[in-house]
Design the sequence.
């Protein structure tokens, strides 16, 4: 029995060291900024916005729109006006229709109790300029305010 415990402890130490070693091999650059909405009501005048810095123009980046809503949200989708502004330029906007779920399969993303978070791909980019980039997200749904929306934001991750 002692040999089995000793071997088990040895394997646990190896697994721990392997995890640490692998996590230090490559650093993943991440930016995420989320804007919470008061009373879980996203008004059309409320814009989720933020600034992220790009210093490596040789890499490709994955960009995600991050939304958090409650189970009581009454639509299966959301329409947004998403904008990105590169240094020295004006904001470029795009209308986006994002699916959040369907009646057959339920909500997309990860949920805990009645709160759901979804990260939807917005695209992958190779930024041409170094510097501060700005983003903005505006809800363009007909309901104003759009109820049961907790937060909206953007996530930028350097692709491997």
Sequence:
């Amino acid at each position: 029995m002692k040999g089995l415990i000793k071997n088990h402890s040895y394997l646990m130490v190896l697994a721990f060291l392997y995890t640490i070693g692998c996590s230090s091999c490559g650093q993943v650059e991440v930016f995420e900024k989320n804007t919470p909405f008061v009373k879980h009501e996203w008004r059309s005048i409320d814009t989720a916005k933020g600034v992220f810095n790009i210093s490596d123009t040789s890499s490709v980046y994955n960009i995600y729109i991050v939304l958090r809503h409650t189970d009581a949200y009454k639509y299966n989708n959301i329409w947004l006006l998403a904008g990105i502004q590169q240094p020295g330029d004006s904001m470029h906007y795009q209308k986006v229709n994002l699916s959040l779920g369907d009646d057959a399969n339920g909500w997309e993303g990860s949920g805990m109790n009645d709160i759901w978070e979804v990260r939807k791909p917005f695209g992958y980019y190779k930024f041409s300029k170094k510097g501060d980039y700005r983003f903005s997200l505006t809800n363009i749904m007909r309901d104003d305010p759009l109820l049961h929306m907790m937060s909206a934001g953007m996530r930028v991750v350097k692709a491997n």
